[in-house]
Amino acid sequence: MKNKYIEVVKKWLADNDSVNLENLVENSNAAQKTYFAAFDASEVACEAAEAAAAAVAAATAALAAADADRDVANWVERYEELTNDEID
């Protein structure tokens, strides 16, 4: 896929009279808008990826905490089974 902004510049380089100054300026402005829009989109994608990573980390921590709670509950249950003693 060819970049239409680069193609205008290449055309001008090949023949300076083929593209006038106004067209070059318009081409430059349009290229900058496209660049900044793409940059903004990539920045948003990075933010989304970071948020997803944070969500995964939080979910992992929650699972670890739940596992720890289950472990403690299992040990208490095991103690009660072995001692026939219920903890109040």
Structure description:
With 88 residues, the chain is mainly alpha-helical. It has one domain. 84% of the residues lie in helices and 0% in strands. The radius of gyration is 32 Å and the shape is rod-shaped.
User: How many strand elements?
Assistant: 0
What best-fitting shape do the alpha-carbon axes yield?
rod-shaped
Radius of gyration from CA coordinates: 32 Å
Beta-sheet strand percentage? Answer: under 5%
Brief overview, please?
The chain is mostly helical. Helices cover about 85% and strands about 0% of the residues.
Layout of strands and helices, then pairs:
Elements: H1 4-14, H2 21-83
Record keyword descriptors for this entry:
88 residues, single chain, rod-shaped, mainly alpha
